[in-house]
Amino acid sequence: MNRLENIEPKRVFYYFERLSQIPRCSGNEKMASDYIKSVGEELGLETIQDEFLNVIIRKPASPGYENSEGVIIQGHMDMVCEKENGVDHDFTRDPIELIVDGDYIRANGTTLGADNGIAVAMGLAIMEDKSLEHPSIELVITTSEETEMNGALGLSKDLLKGKRLLNIDSEEEGILTTGSAGGELIEVKLPAEYEEIGNFTEIDIEVRGLMGGHSGMEIHKDRGNSIKILNSILKELKSSINIRLISIEGGTKDNAIPRQSKAKIAVALDELSVFVNKIEEIKNNILDEYKLREPGMEIVVTKGSSAAKALKEKILVELIILLDGILTGVYTRIPGNEDIVESSSNLAIVRTEEGNITIQISTRSSSKEKLLELRERILDVVRSTSSKYSIGNQYPEWEYNPNSELRDTALALYKEMFGKEMESTVIHAGLECGVFAEKYPGLDIISFGPNIYDVHTPMEKLSISSTERTYRYLVELLKRLK
After folding, report:
1. Global pTM exceeds 0.90
2. 10-181+397-480: CATH architecture
3. What is the CATH number of domain 184-395?
4. Host H or E run for residue 343
5. pLDDT tens-place string over residues 304-338
6. Which residues are tagged catalytic?
7. How far is CA 477 from CA 62, 75, 84, 135, 325, in A?
């Protein structure tokens, strides 16, 4: 491979390319964790791999920094695994195929994994370089950040010694993140009861080609939600035609806006001609409504064979109520600063399982009060049906610290290096910083990173020039933390 070998900073991109050869979807990080551990051991540094497959590598302070407070450099090894329709890629075994495209690195039809592989690469390059000036460093690379944050949540509370944490999991250069949202996952199960039917034919309806995106960072961009769009089709059909639902699938990750959804329905034979005209009308109306927001969207209708069984009619009625009523998108914005999202909901996944239709909704908020309010709004809809629900995957918000010396140092350095102000902001995405702040009270935390675009989608790309500047900034920041 070695497609990145001549790109600066060379050792950063060396490690990024090596990591890209290793499967590392959330929940499948063992090989990546073992690789990171092996690098630490080969460098002769104290290296710990815990039961959650987190890896901690310790590097002593350089001469003159022995009495400085220690620094933690932190990122996560797992990635969101998404691919384009028709792409033959097995995320459990295939390497990411890297493509250099001008100033960008992207993958061939899949997510790139720069979120957050670039943090791992920068961290390993720092640990390797003996010429740098810095306090003692603990490189902490966690697992399952993109799902339950189990790595960070499982990390021992007495393991880390550093007093300042540099999280490299932000995606816009020149932005210093100093706070983030907390969140949770609401899982709904609607009982799926089938019955035999006669004189019906199967029809597949697929909504695909949407932009999708990160359910925190892109939730305010008014992108289409394939589950919501598919449900609107089912709702309109049900109002005028005798249809039954056989199965429904949509979305793949709870932290990604769903790009593709598909329903298999049964249409009464004596209403098939009416259905053909009606679905064409609905399809044209939706494509016209979304033509500016989702220019790549397709609605594909395929006729199948005769249908022998379908879900009981009441199940489709209740499913439409759920998918129609569950909030998705921005719920509230920060009072006094309407540009910043305070709380949101992402109707992320729907799937037909044995005995149930399962729905997953991820919610986020920088306010605990609004998170609970949003939860109740969603559960009011759930309780109006025969569904059961559970709440899990909770992670804490990271509250803004007005007295952060680390933030002040980072802002001043950026202006000195690049001649312009660095913006300090609180973001709507969930970062592990909230977990570290809760486990280690008093820890001074900031987050930054290079420009990464369209994360959590197959369009993800990493800016090479931005990575070079960000790494140079990281090296200089470590030098300043004496």
Report:
1. no
2. 3-Layer(aba) Sandwich (3.40)
3. 3.30.70.360
4. strand 337-353
5. 999 999 999 999 999 999 999 999 999 999 887 77
6. 78, 145
7. 14, 17, 39, 11, 48
